[in-house]
């Protein structure tokens, strides 16, 4: 945000922007900054401060300070550009390796939720479920105490048609590789506070992956609905097919390469790189405050589009393009276009200070 304000003030200094125009633009950036903070707070509603696991405070006291605590934490994480180092908070850890195995299980849902670690989902040709856990247990005196803490605090079970892997333990980091049968799944939900989430070659109706700090990376996913959200980290979706996909980051690039009927991609200060592998898409919405947007579409796409930016350049390099509006004012740029009278794809992109480009592949 500081760089954007300096850029705006430089335009005023050069006589390209009036004081009123600069004030209006800075206020718009401030509003987006406020929305960013609210979003980060919302992402943390189930997170309790690491240093107060004793629950000594009253519930209303925890709730009132939660947003501020998480904002401080995310700011630190962004500056480090790496995962939160639990060693700095809790000191020495003891390593535990444990495998949960379920033979010939019948299930269609996966539900994973724990604070720290990583998740990697890998289909295999076996009919068994194999959950490989490499854990770092903090605040344990010895190996036996660490193992007992792991087994008592980590729930891994089959409940009806659902595989559950849960833990609320903050003083534990669990790196999980989950091997599941190659089959169709109804729903996969994964939520971490700190750590990356990965998966590949999955056939699932609904997939939801959320982390406050970490990369989300999925490839070769065939699904109806996908939701991917991170406060601090890259989101990469490749070679996948969805009916509807929603992708959101606060800080971090978003990359999508695949097929979807509806795409909603939003970031605060990350770039958006969206590539449509075919002409299935009917609606594409892309928005970022300070990042750039690049949209690649097939040459034969029949598209109607609208781009908006305050300071960034707008460009549509498409076959048979007809531009109906091109506004290039100092703090208000707009571009409207279409490539056919009867269109299938409706495209909207907005960036406060970044550039927007669409082109044929």
TrEMBL record:
<dbReference type="InterPro" id="IPR053959">
    <property type="entry name" value="YvlB/LiaX_N"/>
</dbReference>
<dbReference type="InterPro" id="IPR025164">
    <property type="entry name" value="Toastrack_DUF4097"/>
</dbReference>
<feature type="domain" description="DUF4097">
    <location>
        <begin position="108"/>
        <end position="330"/>
    </location>
</feature>
<dbReference type="InterPro" id="IPR016599">
    <property type="entry name" value="UCP012569"/>
</dbReference>
<protein>
    <submittedName>
        <fullName>Uncharacterized protein</fullName>
    </submittedName>
</protein>
<feature type="domain" description="YvlB/LiaX N-terminal">
    <location>
        <begin position="3"/>
        <end position="33"/>
    </location>
</feature>
<dbReference type="Pfam" id="PF13349">
    <property type="entry name" value="DUF4097"/>
</dbReference>
<dbReference type="Pfam" id="PF22746">
    <property type="entry name" value="SHOCT-like_DUF2089-C"/>
</dbReference>
């Amino acid at each position: 945000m500081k760089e954007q304000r300096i850029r705006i003030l430089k335009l005023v200094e050069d006589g390209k922007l009036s004081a009123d125009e600069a004030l209006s633009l800075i206020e718009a950036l401030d509003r987006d900054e406020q929305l960013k903070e609210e979003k980060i707070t919302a992402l943390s509603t189930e997170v309790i401060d690491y240093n107060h696991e004793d629950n000594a405070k009253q519930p209303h006291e925890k709730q009132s300070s939660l947003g501020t605590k998480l904002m401080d934490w995310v700011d630190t994480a962004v500056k480090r550009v790496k995962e939160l180092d639990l060693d700095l908070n809790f000191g020495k850890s003891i390593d535990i390796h444990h495998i949960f195995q379920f033979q010939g299980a019948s299930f269609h849902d996966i539900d994973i939720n724990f604070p720290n670690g990583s998740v990697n989902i890998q289909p295999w040709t076996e009919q068994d479920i194999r959950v490989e856990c490499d854990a770092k247990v903090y605040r344990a005196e010895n190996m036996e105490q660490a193992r007992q803490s792991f087994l008592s605090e980590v729930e891994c079970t089959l409940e009806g048609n659902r595989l559950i892997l849960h833990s609320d333990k903050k003083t534990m980091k669990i790196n999980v590789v989950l091997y599941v049968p190659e089959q169709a799944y109804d729903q996969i939900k994964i939520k971490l506070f700190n750590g990356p989430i990965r998966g590949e070659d999955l056939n699932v109706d609904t997939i939801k992956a959320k982390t406050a700090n970490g990369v989300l990376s999925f490839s070769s996913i065939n699904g109806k609905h996908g939701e991917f959200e991170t406060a601090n980290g890259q989101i990469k979706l490749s070679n996948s097919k969805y009916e509807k996909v929603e992708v959101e980051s606060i800080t971090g690039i978003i990359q999508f390469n695949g097929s979807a009927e509806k795409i909603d991609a939003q970031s605060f200060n990350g770039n958006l790189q969206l590539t449509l592998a075919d002409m299935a898409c009917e609606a594409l919405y892309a928005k970022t405050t300070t990042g750039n947007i690049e949209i690649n579409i097939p040459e034969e796409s029949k598209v109607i589009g609208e781009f908006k930016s305050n300071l960034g350049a707008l460009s549509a390099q498409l076959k048979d393009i007809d531009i109906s509006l091109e506004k290039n004012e100092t703090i208000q740029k707009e571009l409207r276009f279409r490539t056919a009278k009867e269109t299938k794809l409706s495209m909207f992109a907005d960036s406060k200070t970044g550039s927007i480009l669409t082109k044929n592949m």
